[in-house]
Write a structure and sequence with these properties.
The chain is of the alpha/beta class and 204 residues long. The chain contains seven helices and ten strands.
């Protein structure tokens, strides 16, 4: 579903101001803000009722922007990115200096993916990396329609971007690496056997 440039501009302005925006992705609706705005990150946690100990992943508009949030990019990460980006694969890598604490996991990693959804990618292109947590109250199912997101958040969210009904069965797969070995942190839309096939002999 195409959106007007004015709608995208309104959403980008809201994110820059530290507000929350609901937007469509290739899996479910997400709730996003400027990933480098502490006010925006605090807003996301408050709106969702999310435990502050749970980190938030990112969406970037292309591979270069995604890898720019990492201190180092393992070769395995590059191989998976070539195979599955844009797509529902979140790769956790060592966070570079300056990444806000709410985005960094206990092991020092930051999760990022490149979404194939044109709205998500355009927001990230205009703004830089955006938060990619699902649009739902903490502990509830992710929203598959804007109506569900509005019921959950109401006026607490500044802008809602329509993307129709989203039919994904699973969220993105989340992976990280330990001494050259891939680890699946969350099973999701990309099955582990597909990861194994893409790595052609790298242990999983």
């Amino acid at each position: 579903m195409a959106l007007l440039d004015e709608e995208i501009a309104l959403a980008v302005a809201a994110m820059r101001a530290g507000e929350a925006v609901v937007y469509p992705t290739e899996t479910f609706y997400g709730i996003g803000t400027d990933a480098f705005s502490m006010a925006g990150l605090e807003r996301i946690f408050a709106v969702k009722g999310r435990d502050a100990a749970k980190t938030i992943a990112l969406i970037a508009h292309d591979e270069g922007a995604a890898f720019a949030v990492a201190r180092e990019v393992p070769d395995i990460a590059r191989r998976l990115a070539r195979a599955f980006w844009p797509g529902p694969l979140t790769i956790v890598m060592p966070a570079r200096h300056g990444i806000p604490d709410p985005l960094i996991g206990p092991g020092g990693g930051v999760g990022v993916r490149v979404s194939p959804h044109p709205v998500a990618r355009e927001l990230a292109r205009c703004l830089g990396p955006i938060t990619a947590t699902s649009a739902n109250l903490s502990g509830q199912p992710p929203a598959t329609s804007l109506t569900e997101a509005r019921i959950a958040f109401g006026s607490k969210v500044k802008v809602y971007l329509e993307g129709g009904t989203l039919g994904a069965a699973l969220a993105s797969t989340v992976v990280t690496f330990d001494r050259g070995v891939i680890k699946v942190l969350r099973a999701g839309a990309i099955a582990e056997h597909r990861l194994s096939a893409a790595l052609a002999g790298v242990r999983t």
